[in-house]
Every structure is written in structure tokens, then in C-alpha cells.
Amino acid sequence: MLINYLKTAIRHFSRQKLYTLLNISGLALGVAFLLLALMYWLNERSYDRFHERADNLYRITTSLMQYEGAPHSRTGGTGQVQGPAFKEAIPEVLDYVRLLGGDVYGDVRHEQEVLKMQMVFADENFFDLFTFPLLHGNPATALDEINSVVLTERAARRFFNTADAVGKLLHMEADPSAKRLGNKPMLVTGVVKDPPPNSSIQFDMLLPFRFLQLSFDDTNWLNAYLGTYVLLDKNADLTAVVEKFDQIYEQHGPPQIEEQGFDPQISYGLQPIADIHLNMLLGGSSWHEGGTVGESRPLYSNLFFGIAFFIFLLAGINFININIAGSLKRAKEVSIRKISGGSRWGLIGQFLGEAALLSGVSLLLALLLTIALLPAFNTLADKQIAFGAYFDGKFAIGLLLVFVITTILSGLYPAIVLSAFQPGEVLYNRNRSSRQFQLGKALVVLQFSLAFLLAVATVVFYAQMEFISRKALGYTPDYVIRTNISGARKAEPIRQLLRNEVARYDGFGGISFGGDFRKQGLETTVNDRKIRSVYKSIDGNYLSVLDIPLRRGENLRSESSREILVNEAFVRAAGLKDPIGQAVYLHPDYADGDEPYQVVGVMADYHFESLHQPIQPLAAYWRPYRNFGIWLKVRRDRIQPALQAFEELYHKTMPDASYEYQFLSDLNAREYDQERRWQQIIGIAAVLAMFICGLGLFGIAHLNTAQRTKEIGIRKILGASIPGLVGLLSRDFLKLVIIALMLASPVAYLLLKKWLQTYAYRIDMHWSVFALAGMAAMGVAVLTVSGQCIRAALADPVESLSKE
């Protein structure tokens, strides 16, 4: 019996090659997309779980007010004092490790080669808490000596062309701590395996925390800038431990609060290490000195998986539609089998078996597609997902569930419908399938609703990105490179030499030195009025290099005076009618002394942040020890020669420094990497959804025209034209698409309007967006349906009526 069913299935598939191809390709694409999304989802939730002590390893979080009157924000950082104090006073705290790094880079020299290394400063018990296996060296003592350094395998090979680098020497002349050691060489005491891609802690080299403290020791309880990780007793009550944290702070914090004159209202918390990646705390996107990088949000992986799962359902729905569309051709076969003694359950089993066979082939093809598409997907999603990494027992069970669900969704309903046909009705052409195919029409509406939503999202994403790329920023980032004077070097002689050399070469358009202080506004006083302003350190060339217009007054004249430039937003916020000559009191942490600064000029507003944020009040002035940044303008017609000349000049000026640069336009574009990535992913999903919708509509169109063959024949005999028949047959399908557009439009509008509100500067949700997406959906529907309708309209009426 089974062999007979198999032969029947193969014979049917060979006769219906088009249907078979549509079924297999649709399911394979849907399952492949689902598998990619599933691996992405699993990868996002695998971060930091590889540590052997992950279940009891937590990061201390700090809740505080950044400034008086500000809302409380939760950060992933502490100061240097919390870890030692908590371990000493709280029995449940078995150990702690402080980490500073992640976004900390420094120049490291071996002989004549200088490389920029990503550094993490860690306490000597780092390898007791974190699972980063050492290839060479002793993890118990690797960070004991103050001049110890542990390299990753990748870094060791870059320096020494071998992973066995223990005992080798490195030099860090520009590091302030190294200078306090008298530039004593750093000794390689260990080589660790490269941190896996799903680690929030990434580094090229580990250095002792005590080495950092040579130049930067801190006893302030109000600080929160590094990561402190604690290992707790497995039976510890987390709530009780946090209460003890706060009690200890109450003992040490008040004197420092009194000295600062402002109570940040600090309280502490605990965050499991496995929760760090998907829980972005304050600074998660731009501040990574706490040792972690690459934080994300669960929204992205959940959204991607949700879209992929829905597309997978669409593929299953298509199988149902296409199978039912072809059921009329098998109705007589089913009737003859029933007359010959075949049971309904036997027929259901046969059709479920056929669905299982197609599902199995589709799943196999989906696996091959997934493997083939994974490299391109990794590039698109900025991931390093390996297919084999998730091919375990759970993943195999997941694939089995996909197979079972696919088989049931795609085979059970058609099997029940077909097996319920009565032989008499079928053999005497009493059609009853139309009333049983209302589900198929409803599913087509559901399909096109999602496809339309994705199409609208694609159009809006593209329009917003185009708006961003074309919006005037108030300055000219093109042909300006950004680099820096690295390390703790004496910057003034370097600045003067670079200025002189740049002035001599006609390939340069100017050079400016400066630096960003912080992106959050600081309390600033003007005429007894307090406002919040961003601070930036600049020199007198900054405006000319970036082509920023000066609206009033004059530029900075002297690097030693207390002159300051403000932007137009600053003038508005401070309510100044005549800003020139006004006294400005900066935040004490960023002012050299108590004397006020004097406004000498007003520059035009420009976007010094991404377009997610409105232009904030800006105060720009010269601060010598915060001017390690370099902005260099190169002439458009001399780009490559100018870049090469400046690299030579840079190495001549700082021979022991590594040189890296980026165009300012590229740095701006990086602010929107995530949006562009999701624009591509959603665009691909929209195209795939439209394609699958087309397959589904093809199935229902074929069924409809097959049901109306005799009607079409009679209409042709009575004089109906072919265009009229095509319009008649297409009308019902286009109604389904229009209903889908009407249902999806409000949902798309609300969701995308909410997304656009994350930008301070954004496009309007114009009706043309919906019209464009609607035209795409209607185009797919018309192209899909028209072929079937034209074929039916051109059929010979004699042949169709002879079946009566």
C-alpha cells in the first residue's frame, strides 16, 4: 500500500511539474528565511553564556541622576572603589573583577612595528571569573606583575608571527602609566584564545588594573565609568545583596556629595552577565569603557524572527492554496479510489504522505539554501554565525517541528477537503469546492496585508535614509578626514609642526585640532540663567576647515584667552538678544578656573550629532589638554596624493604611533548603520513576501478559472470579448488585494510613524508612500492573475462545454 501511494505521488508530481516546483520553491524559501532568522535569534541570546560561572556572575549597575533635575538613568558602570568595598563587607560576594576597556585603544610597539590594540584593563583574578582559555601561560599568575600583558592569539600572530609569544617584550611609550614605569617594557605573560564573536568582552590585549592605576587612581563613590563584575554565592538573595550595596554607599557617599554640592541619588543593582548584550544601558551605543561592546536590543531579533515566521506561514498557506487549486484535477482520481473501496482515512494518509514528501524535499533544499546564503547574511547582519554552531539536538528537534508543522499546515486541510468529495458529485461535475475555498481567499488577504506592510516599511526606510543623506548638515563633511594625536604625548609641539607642514603643501585645505567632551548637555550659566549646553574644544581653524558660517562677531583669536563661540541654539536657549561680550560660566569640571568665558562670536547651527537628536546648544572654546583630535581638509582634486603626504607627515612627527583615519562623511554614515541594515533586511523580506503572495494568488486564480470554465465558454459563445472576460475574472482577485491594503494601511501608518519619531528630523508620512507600495502589491497581483485569466479567456469554448 505504501509503495502504491509513493508511486502515485511520484506520478502525480511528474505530471504536475509546475505545481511541484511552486510548492517546493515556496516552502524552501520560507523555511530558509525562518532558519536564518532563528539562527540570528539564537545567536543574540547566546552572548556571554559560554562562561563557566555565568549563572552566578553579575555586573553591578548604577542608577543615578546625571545632573540636578534630570531623570534617573541606569548605567552599566561603577567607580574603582565599589568592588573592593562590597567584597570586604558582604559575605555573598565571593569575588570581583573590574574592567576598563572595550572602547580603549593604544599604540603598542614591537621593534619598528607599531599597531593599535584594543585594550582591557582587568584585575589579576580575571581568568578566575571569566572563561577565556589560555593557549600559553599560567592563568593564575598571568596578570600578577604590573608590566604584564596577555595577548590574544590574533594579536600575538600580528606581532610575532606565532601564538607562542610568552616572554616577548612590547613597548607602550605613549601610555601615561608606562611613562610612570620609566617606559619599562611590557612582558607577554600569556596568550589567550581570541574572544568568541558572541562575547560582550572583546580585546586584543589584557593589562593589569594596577597598571592603569599608576596614572588614574580613583576613590570617588559618585563615579560610574568602568565595569565591576561580582561572583555571588549560588544561594545569595539578590535583593538582599543590592540592599547591602546601598547601605555601604550610604556610609561612604555623603561626604563626597557634600563636596560636590549635588546629590545624584545613587542606588545599585545587579545584572546577570548573560543579560548584558540585549539590555542596553546608558552609554551602550557610544560609551564602552566598561569593557563591553556590541550591545543590542531584543526588539530587533524578535522583529526579524516574527517576520520570518510569518513568511514561513505564508509559504505553508501557499501550499494549501496551490494544493486545493489542483484538487479538481484529482477529484475523479479520489472518487474512483473511494468507489474501489478506499477509505477516507486512507486517502487522508495518502495526501498527508505526499505533503510530507514535498515538505521533506523542501526542507532539504532549505538547508542547502541556508548554508549557501549564510555568508551573505552574515555580511548583511554584521554577524559571524556558523551553521554548525547551532546544529545540536535542540536544533534537530526544531527542524523536526518545522517539518511536522509544514506537513500538517500544507497537507491536512487539502487532504480533508479532497477526501470529503462524494463520487457522485464529482463524476457528474457538481462543483462544491467554491464554498470550501473561502479560507483560501481569507489567507490571500492575510498574505497581502503583511506583504503590503513590509513594502510600506521598505519605502519609508529608503525615503528616510535618502532624506538623511541629502539633508544639509550646516557644514561640509566631504573631503575632511578625522584622526588624532594618540597616547599621552606632548601635543603642542606636534600641533605646531603639523600646522607648519600642512600650510606648505597645496593638497591640503586646512587643519584643525580639537576634541569632543561629552554629548550630554552640561549646566551652563548665562546672566543668572541656567541652560544645558554641549561643550567642544576647537581652535581658530575649526570653522574654516568644516565650512561652518560665523553669524555674528568674530572667530577665536587666541588659544590662551577665555574666549568662547556659541551656536544659534545656545543664543535662543539663553534668551540673548546681544550675545557678543556676554559672560558664560561653564560647568566646573570643564572650566579652567572660576573666571567666566566671554562670547566673541556666534556660529551657525550645525548637526554635530546624528539626526536622531535635535541641535543642542553648543559652547566651543580652546582647551589645550583636550585637543588631541585632528580634522584635516584635503582638496578634491588631490585626494590620494594628499592622504599619502599626510600619512608620511604623521609618521615623521610621531614615528612610534600607529596611523588610522576616517573620512568625516563615513563617520556620519556609521550613525545609521543599523537602520540601513534593517532597511535591507526588511526590503528582502518584502520582496520574498510579495513573491510568496504571488504564488498563493496563482493557486487561487487557477482554482477560480477552473471552476468557471463552462461559464467562460458560454459567455464567449454569447459574444463576450477577451478583455471583458479577463476583467471579469480578475475582479475578484483585485478585490482581495484592495481589502488587504485597506486593512494593513492603518497598522503600517501607526508603526512607521512611531519609528520615525526616533528621529528629530524626519520625512512626513505622505499618501504617496502608501500609493507606491500599493502599486507594487497590485502589480504583483495583476501579473500573477492575468496569465491565468488570459489563458482561460482564450480557451476553446467547445472543449469546455463538451465536459458537461
Write the layout of secondary structure elements.
Blueprint: H1 2-15, H2 17-44, E1 57-65, E2 72-75, H3 82-89, E3 93-110, E4 113-122, H4 126-129, E5 134-137, E6 148-152, H5 153-160, E7 169-170, H6 176-180, E8 186-192, E9 205-208, H7 209-213, E10 227-232, H8 238-260, E11 267-272, H9 298-325, H10 327-339, H11 344-381, H12 393-419, H13 423-427, H14 433-436, H15 438-470, E12 480-484, H16 491-504, E13 508-526, E14 529-537, H17 542-546, E15 550-553, E16 563-567, H18 568-574, E17 583-585, E18 597-603, E19 618-621, E20 629-634, H19 639-653, E21 662-663, H20 664-670, H21 673-707, H22 709-717, H23 722-756, H24 767-794, H25 797-801
Parallel strand pairs: 4-9, 6-8, 14-19, 16-18
Antiparallel strand pairs: 1-2, 1-10, 1-11, 3-4, 3-10, 5-8, 6-9, 7-8, 12-20, 12-21, 13-14, 13-17, 13-20, 15-18, 16-19, 17-18
Helix pairs in contact: 1-11, 2-9, 2-11, 3-8, 9-12, 9-15, 9-21, 11-12, 15-21, 15-23, 15-24, 16-19, 21-24, 23-24
Structural account:
- With 804 residues, the chain is an alpha+beta fold.
- The chain folds into four domains: 1-45 and 297-436, no CATH class; 54-275, no CATH class; 441-472 and 673-804, no CATH class; 490-653, no CATH class.
- 50% of the residues lie in helices and 17% in strands.
- It is built from 25 helices and 21 strands.
- The strands form two sheets. Strands 1, 2, 3, 4, 5, 6, 7, 8, 9, 10 and 11 form an eleven-stranded mixed beta sheet that branches. A six-stranded mixed β-barrel has the order 13-14-19-16-18-17.
- A hairpin with a 2-residue loop joins strand 13 and strand 14.
- Helix 15 crosses helix 23.
- It is globular.
